[in-house]
Amino acid sequence: VQQCSGKDNHLEGAQWLYLIDTGGQIAFQKLLPIFMPFAQVLILVVNISKEFSSQSTALMHYEGEDLVDDGSPYRLTVEEVLKQIISSIASGMQHFRDSYKDHEVLRDLVPEKLQILTIGTHGDECSDLKKSKRVLAKKLAEIIKGNDDCESIEVDHVVRVREIDGRIACA
Hints:
By secondary structure, the chain is α/β, with parallel strands linked by helices. It has helices at residues 2-5, 26-29, 32-35, 78-99, 129-145, 166-169, and strands spanning 41-47, 61-62, 65-66, 114-121, 150-152, 161-163.
């Protein structure tokens, strides 16, 4: 936004901040590249009390019906959901960048890589909050480093998890 604000461009100095909450629903995650072609930063909010190998609470739907119930093979793990979100947004951003690489104004709106900021919630449900944050940071670092189109927004691109108490944020 700051890069765009002082320049004379075809966007007439417009500044945008879009917050899109998919609530973990896979159907919405697949649409993210359509709504976020100018994505520069992904604020990834993760429930740190969940194991990466546990099944996501997101239900898959087909023609208006739920395909899953407890133990269903149609339910993705938390790790797979996070990989899909990151990959979807980062690849959509790169597709936009590649499409407009010769456009004088639009090519400068999208950074080389998607910047990711990680926030952990539900720390009150963790038996060991420090360990849970450390495990999440390590696993997310693997996912982010495995994707050439994104990087952590933190100094030196180290993945850190900033914990917030969602009970306070909602009050």
